Amino acid sequence: MRRLTKVDLLLFAVVLIWGSVFSVIKHSLQEIDPLAFATARFGGATLFLLITLWLLEGKPTIRREDWLRVGVVGIIGIGFYQILFTLGLYYTTASNSSLLIATGPIFTLLFAVLLREERIVPLQIVGILVSFLGVAMIVGAQSGGLTLSVEHLKGDLFTLTCAAINGLCAVVARRPLERYSSLRLMTASFLLGTASMLLFTWRALLYQPWAHLSLNGWLGLGYSSFIAGGLGYVLWFWAIGEIGATRTMVYNYLIPVVAVGVAVLTLKEHLTPLQALGALIVFVGIALARLTPPYRIPGKRREETGLIKGGSDDD
Questions:
Q1: Cα separation, 306 vs 56, whole angstroms
Q2: In whole angstroms, what is the distance from residue 132 CA to residue 120 CA?
Q3: In the prediction, which pLDDT does 46 show?
Q4: Which of 136, 148, 233, 271 has its CA 20 to 30 Å from the CA of residue 255?
C-alpha cells in the first residue's frame, strides 16, 4: 500500500487553491472585464515570480535550446489558453466547460505516448478513465451534463482546445524541468504568456476603471494572481518534474470535487448522492493512477535550485 508523499500533499494543496478560486474569480468578474482580469492576474503573478526568482536564484536565464519548449508553455499554455478559456466560457455552458476541461489528463496521456516522453502503464489509463467518469457524474448531477448544440459548438471547441493545450504543456515541460527549477520555468513562461496576452487584451486592460475597484475586487485579484496563479503553477510544474505529467494531471479531476465542496459549505448548496458517488470514484481513479511505479527522469540533475528543491518522497 503506497503512502501519501510530499508530492501528493502539495498537489492536494494546489487542488484546494484552484478549486476555491473559481468562486473568487466569479465575484471579481462582477467588477472587472474578463480579458482585463486575466491579463492583470497573470501580470501580477509574473511580477511576483520575477521578484521571488531574483531573490532566490538570480537572473531568470534560460538556455537557447530550451526556449522552444518554454515558449510553448508560456505563449500557448498561458497566453492563448487564457484567451480561449474566457471565450469558451462565453460561448458555451458552465457544465460543458467543466466536463470538456476534464479531458485534459486524457490529452496528457495521448501526448506522452505520441512524443515518447513517459512510460505509460495500463493502470494509469484505467485510473484516468475512472476519474473522468467520476467528474462526469458530478457535472451531470449539478447541471444536466453535456449539452450538444450548434449554438454551443464554438465555445465547446475553444474549451476542448484548452484541454488539449493543458495536456500538451504538461508533457512538453518535462525536459526543461530536468534542467531548471519549476520557479525558473514558470517565471519565463509567465513572461512570455503575459506578453502574448497583451497583444489581444491591451484595450480591455487600458479601459478598465481600476480606480473604482472595491477592496474585495482587489483582494480577489491578488489571491488569483499570487496564490492561485504564481504559487499554484510553480507547485504544479514542480510535481510534473517529480512524478511525471500523467500522474500529476490526474489530480485535475479533484478540482470539480473541491468546487462542489466549497459551494456546499459557503453557498449552502445541496450535495446529491450522485455527486458524492462521483467524488468517491474520482478518488479511486487517482489512487489507481498513483499506484503505478514512481516516475523517474533518467540522470535528473537541476542546474539551479528553485523555490522547492530535493527529490521525490516516492523512495
A1: 7
A2: 18
A3: 92
A4: 148
Q: Give yes or no for a contact between 192 and 76, defined as CB atoms under 8 angstroms apart.
A: no
CA distance 169 to 82: 14
In a domain, 96, yes or no: yes
Q: Say if 245 falls within a structural domain.
A: yes
Say yes or no to pLDDT of 62 above 80. yes
**163-209 residue pLDDT tens:** 889 889 988 988 888 888 889 999 999 999 999 989 888 898 898 99
**Residue 233 domain-assigned (yes or no):** yes
Domain that holds residue 18: 6-290
Grid coordinates 494531471 are at which residue? 249
What are φ and ψ of residue 207, in 5° steps? -90, 0
Alpha-carbon distances, residue 196 vs 62, 77, 190, 192 (angstroms):
18, 11, 10, 6
What letter represents residue 143's amino acid? S
Residues in the chain: 315
Rounded Cα distance between 279 and 134, Å, is 6
How far apart are the C-alpha atoms of 141 and 74, rounded to whole Å? 35
How many domains is the chain partitioned into structurally?
1
Region of poorest pLDDT, from 23-27, 83-87, 102-106, 238-242: 23-27
- Buried b / exposed e along 144-157 (16+ C-beta atoms within 10 A): eebeeeeebeebbe
Q: What is the pLDDT of residue 38?
A: 86
Q: Is 156 helix (H, G, I), strand (E, B) or coil?
A: helix
Residue with grid cell 516516492, as numbered in its chain: 314
Domain for residue 258, yes or no? yes
Neighbouring residues of 172: CB distance < 8 A, sequence distance ≥ 6: 69, 72, 73, 111, 115
Residue 311: band (very low, low, confident or very high) from pLDDT cuts 50, 70, 90: very low
